[in-house]
Design goal:
11 strands; Arc Repressor Mutant, subunit A; two-stranded antiparallel ribbon; D-Maltodextrin-Binding Protein, domain 2
C-alpha cells in the first residue's frame, strides 16, 4: 500500500481533469478552488509528474495527466460501485435533483409532501441553482431544466409548458379595466421575459410605461407583485398557486406563449429503472394533473434573452 497516492487528492484531480477547470471542480465537490489546487499540487509532488499545463486563461492536461485521469476515473468508478453494492439494505436510497431556484420554490416545493409521503424509503436532495450542472457524475442524478430542449446525450421530456400574462394583486386589478390602463402602473420586470411581446399582442407597442425593478429570480419578481409593488408579466406555471390562493389575479384574458419549457433531464437509460424512474414517474404524473389556465393566446414571443437550467 506504500505506492498509493494521497487518496483525498484523487476526486479533486478527476473532477479537474474532466472539467478542465479548478473552479468548476471546486463547485462540483463543494470545496474552495484553493482546496482543489492544493490537492492537485500535493498529488503532482507525490508523483513527481506535472498533470496540468496552467495557462493564462486555460487549463490543459499533460499527456501524463490525460493517461492518469482515465485510470483514476475507472478506479473511482469501481470504488463507488463496490461501496454501493455493500451498502446496508436498511439505508435509505438518495437521489439528488438539480433545478432553478424559482421552480424549486414556487412549483416543486409545495408538492414535495406528496412525493415524500409515497416514498418514505427515499431521501431526496434538492440542489437549486442558476448553474447548469453535469449529470451522471455521482453528484447529481437528474435535473429539471428550463429551456428549449435539445439536451444532447441525455434523456429529456417536457413536463410543463409556459404562458406569460400580467399578474397583480386584486387591489391593483380594480384599477385595470383595459390593457391601456397599465400605463398608470409600475411594470415589474422578470429577467428572461420581455414585456414587449405581450404589449404588442395587446396593441400597445410603442406606448410609454413606468418600469420597476428587474429581478433575476422569477420567484422574487412574483413576490414583489404579491407585495403590491406593481404588475408582473408572470409565468403561469410558477404563479399558479398564488393565483389559486387569491394572492394574484389575471386582470386581462390575454397571454403569450413562452418558448422555454420545464424539462425532466437525466442520463440516457436512468429514466427506466431505480430511484430516478420513481422520481421521474412522480413528476410526470404531477405535471399531467397540473391545471392549465384558459386564456386567449397572442402571437409567439421572440426568444428569451437567456436560457436557464
Amino acid at each position: 500500500m506504500k505506492q498509493l497516492p494521497p487518496l483525498k487528492a484523487l476526486p479533486a484531480f478527476e473532477a479537474a481533469a474532466r472539467l478542465l477547470s479548478f473552479t468548476r471542480a471546486a463547485n462540483e465537490l463543494n470545496v474552495t478552488q484553493g482546496a482543489v489546487s492544493q490537492q492537485i499540487r500535493l498529488l503532482e509532488d507525490w508523483l513527481g509528474v506535472r498533470l496540468f499545463q496552467r495557462l493564462t486563461r486555460e487549463l490543459r492536461l499533460t499527456e501524463a495527466g490525460r493517461r492518469y485521469s482515465l485510470e483514476v476515473r475507472d478506479a473511482l468508478r469501481l470504488l463507488e460501485e463496490a461501496t454501493t453494492a455493500l451498502r446496508s439494505k436498511t439505508e435509505r436510497d438518495t437521489i439528488t435533483l438539480s433545478c432553478m431556484p424559482s421552480f424549486a420554490h414556487k412549483w416543486l416545493g409545495p408538492r414535495l409532501g406528496r412525493f415524500i409521503a409515497s416514498n418514505p424509503d427515499l431521501a431526496l436532495n434538492i440542489h437549486s441553482s442558476f448553474e447548469t450542472v453535469e449529470l451522471g457524475t455521482g453528484a447529481f442524478d437528474c435535473a429539471i431544466r428550463h429551456g428549449a430542449g435539445g439536451y444532447r446525450g441525455y434523456y429529456s421530456e417536457i413536463l410543463l409548458t409556459e404562458e406569460l400574462t400580467p399578474l397583480c394583486t386584486p387591489e391593483i386589478a380594480q384599477r385595470l379595466r383595459e390593457p391601456a390602463d397599465l400605463a398608470g402602473e409600475t411594470l415589474i420586470r422578470d429577467y428572461g421575459t420581455e414585456w414587449s411581446d405581450w404589449l404588442e399582442a395587446a396593441g400597445l407597442a410603442g406606448r410609454r410605461f413606468r418600469w420597476g425593478t428587474e429581478f433575476m429570480d422569477s420567484s422574487m419578481a412574483i413576490q414583489a407583485a404579491i407585495d403590491g409593488q406593481g404588475v408582473i408579466l408572470g409565468h403561469t406555471v410558477l404563479a399558479w398557486d398564488d393565483i389559486r390562493n387569491g394572492l394574484l389575479v389575471k386582470p386581462f384574458g390575454l397571454a403569450v406563449p413562452y418558448d422555454f419549457a420545464h424539462w425532466f433531464v437525466c442520463p440516457e437509460g436512468e429514466e427506466r429503472s431505480g430511484v430516478v424512474k420513481r422520481l421521474r414517474d412522480w413528476l410526470v404524473a404531477e405535471a399531467a394533473a397540473f391545471p392549465r389556465p384558459e386564456v386567449r393566446l397572442g402571437r409567439r414571443p421572440s426568444p428569451p434573452r437567456r436560457p436557464f437550467g
